[in-house]
Hints:
The protein is mostly helical. It has helices at 3-17, 27-43, 48-60, 72-83, 91-102, 113-122, 131-145, 151-164, 170-191. It is globular and about 55 Å long.
Amino acid sequence: MQIEQAREFILDKLKKELPECFHYHNADHAVDVYTASKRLAQSEGIGDHETQLLLTAALFHDSGFLSGQKDHESKSCDNARLYLPNFGYTRENIERICDIIMATKMPQSPHDHLGEIICDADLDYLGRNDFFVLSKKLFSELVITDSLKSEQDWDKQQIIFLKNHHYFTKTAIQLRGPVKQLHLDEIIKRTV
């Protein structure tokens, strides 16, 4: 598996071909999820081969946005099946990667530890200090792609989402859970 070449290929494709309206779901987000996945895999004691599959899934998990927002996870799997054989990935590796990608479909439904890790990595920002910066990017994207009307509507959606969200891995629960709660408290406070 030539993960570095696959990484370079898909990030370049996202940077060049993704519509500009995707202020959040873009190459920066793929790198963010890759980085969070790597950190979580290390902390959770995942072996090298499994980590390579996880990191490849992280890079490709939102590449389906290249073909539009609807069913982007399935389209991301189509991209993995189309492009990853060029980088030495076997059919078995690719199907495993697709299973990991599909765990990120909302509501998140991981089947195993790698699925749990990518779900936590995909929403790592919920419990980080850059939450409000990234949240604003997502809001500006959703105004265009989902006809979101106002920041008040966005705050209401975020409150519901944050209240219902939970991290799966021990690492993310400890590392991101407390700060995520502070963000929720802050949003609730400003909507009162």
